[in-house]
């Protein structure tokens, strides 16, 4: 039948695999899901008619998930058109239209392959990790290192955050936990030099992946953004076609400013993907919608907890399933 | 970009209603729609926005358009007044215990900036209040969190109490207070681990620490970039710990910081401090009125208007205008002017408050040296009364005397004289221009 069934079918294809992935998402995103789809259900239950007030409340539900304001406005306009076109009067019918539109924004016209980490085979891949202060860069790197290592890859970390007190030690501890080497200098040294050392070490030790940590910086600090661009240039110079991934680490509790972050970091370092962290709270991470919609940057990983295993590859299907699980189950 | 200020947003709506005598309901409806979007884009919680819009509507409908304000300005003023009321006054006082050391507990989500803020707060207490704080490392979970606090302690040359990562945070806090008593520290700042407000186990740990050490202050440290979820976080920390205040961090970024409003609205606890940079002295008292303007995205133009109103005597201003027109502006007037401007606050702050100022040619990155102003003052004060009235009296020996008296050089005196002359010419041009426009006066760029 409709979209919901299509979505459900997707999950029934390989049930075991899906169950594992979506269980994690369902668990991690329990809070998000409950509030989000719960609200939409509630909204539909209260408004039998699809009218101006209905749209106003729908707008609020979407905004409460930190979906970008502009994205929400576009979405509402599109939904209104759809309602007119299909002559929808009953709010029950809206469920499907809403989810379909949301998913459209999620997927866009993009190749879902871009959601996977782009790593080279048989030669060194370099991942540069950037973001504002406190987003969770170092923690995400630790988790990512662990994940790649358990896939059998040889990983090296470069402690490029030479500014924040304790940052090098923090990465060091993660390196120990994941069982990978950390290339570092003393606090206060030039980050580009540390990264350069990291590349040298990665080459000579024939590592598969080098992950470069950087200091957190607010995107409106021009000098610091220039420093980041310099780090990237060093990588480009030393290894052609590198960095293979530039991951922007984004705190899921961040509001509209996340769009600014994505835009400015993308300008400085050509961001190729997003790591959405702290999605295990009540934050809904709706900003992902806006970023994909407005900047076409895909989410590659989500952080769902503090443990080493709590970094999941972003799976848009599972993510959407997580958001709408309540609605799906209700249908049955 | 998606982030337009309220002033820009209101522009088109305003065009339609300029010239009207009264703000009609329809006008208000249109304008409040824009206000609503502006607030939502600033991350103010949608529920808070809803309440606010309701009150603004009630206040704005039917108001006569004041002569001095355009309808748009008037709506902005109503909005800003409401925001300022909601935000409350400035409250950066730190509690003091009746006896023994005052205990401050720092709490919040991961990555909000608790550890850095702990260091900054210790620095502030020592520098501004002449206190001797003890920093306590209770974050035993995040790798190297203790090391981070210890490094900050080293940078500040301040003691840090820690017991490693194996100890129990409640134990660490208790022992730290004993130590503070022994060593006569008057403040104890407890840095706790970041935790999610829905993590019951860790929230209980905070309650345990609270019960044991009985802190005078419990601060919730919140990232100013937080979105709609700020409400849930603040509500739940407040419910479980009864916080005494909020510290808003990373305000030196370009976020509009609507979270501040949401937090205040749901907890009714004061926002006490704002983190304004990565350096350890960049913690400031929180200014609710400035925040209100920031959320609306219009620089601090209203504070500027208000400052100008309170600091510049209207009568004086009229006299000045007269003088400007007749070219009888003297060094005495100049001195008076500078005094007034200085009363309005540091010049650089003033510049940054003017929206669009950094787009103006020549003003971009202009470093305004307050020292230079002091020099200028000294030079003028070293002039005789006659010289101040009539700069044409100036000759080489007078200049020498003035330079000596003011501790500057003759070339500096010459420079000032030249600048003064140019300024007078410019003033004449400006007043002529204004006459041409017929009393429209200076317009702020956003209207």
TrEMBL record, chain A:
It is an enzyme of class 3 (hydrolase). InterPro entries: AAA+_ATPase, P-loop_NTPase, Signal_recog_particl_SRP54_hlx, SR_rcpt_FtsY, SRP/SRP_N, SRP54_GTPase_dom, SRP54_N_sf. This is Signal recognition particle receptor FtsY. Belongs to the GTP-binding SRP family. FtsY subfamily. It is a peripheral membrane protein. GO terms for molecular function: GTP binding; GTPase activity; signal recognition particle binding. Residues 298-311 form the SRP54-type proteins GTP-binding domain. The gene is ftsY. It comes from the Bacteria. Its EC number is 3.6.5.4. GTP binds at residues 131-138, 213-217, 277-280. The keyword Magnesium does not apply. It comes from Virgibacillus massiliensis. GO terms for cellular component: cytoplasm; plasma membrane. Keywords: Cell membrane, Cytoplasm, GTP-binding, Hydrolase, Membrane, Nucleotide-binding, Receptor. The keyword GTP-binding applies. It is found in: Cell membrane; Cytoplasm. Part of the signal recognition particle protein translocation system, which is composed of SRP and FtsY. It catalyses: GTP + H2O = GDP + phosphate + H(+). Involved in targeting and insertion of nascent membrane proteins into the cytoplasmic membrane. Acts as a receptor for the complex formed by the signal recognition particle (SRP) and the ribosome-nascent chain (RNC). GO terms for biological process: SRP-dependent cotranslational protein targeting to membrane. Its main location: membrane.
Automatic annotation (TrEMBL), chain B:
Its main location: cytoplasm. Pfam families: SRP54 (PF00448), SRP54_N (PF02881), SRP_SPB (PF02978). It is found in: Cytoplasm. Its EC number is 3.6.5.4. The keyword GTP-binding applies. The keyword Lipid biosynthesis does not apply. Residues 270-283 form the SRP54-type proteins GTP-binding domain. It is an enzyme of class 3 (hydrolase). It catalyses: GTP + H2O = GDP + phosphate + H(+). Residues 383-408 are annotated as: Disordered. SMART domains: AAA, SRP54, SRP54_N. GTP binds at residues 108-115, 191-195, 249-252. InterPro entries: AAA+_ATPase, P-loop_NTPase, Signal_recog_part_SRP54_M_sf, Signal_recog_particl_SRP54_hlx, Signal_recog_particle_SRP54_M, SRP, SRP54, SRP54_GTPase_dom. Keywords: Cytoplasm, GTP-binding, Hydrolase, Nucleotide-binding, Ribonucleoprotein, RNA-binding, Signal recognition particle. Part of the signal recognition particle protein translocation system, which is composed of SRP and FtsY. HAMAP family: SRP54. NCBIfam families: ffh. Composed of three domains: the N-terminal N domain, which is responsible for interactions with the ribosome, the central G domain, which binds GTP, and the C-terminal M domain, which binds the RNA and the signal sequence of the RNC. Involved in targeting and insertion of nascent membrane proteins into the cytoplasmic membrane. Binds to the hydrophobic signal sequence of the ribosome-nascent chain (RNC) as it emerges from the ribosomes. The SRP-RNC complex is then targeted to the cytoplasmic membrane where it interacts with the SRP receptor FtsY. Belongs to the GTP-binding SRP family. SRP54 subfamily. This is Signal recognition particle protein. The lineage of its organism: Bacteria, Bacillati, Bacillota, Bacilli, Bacillales.
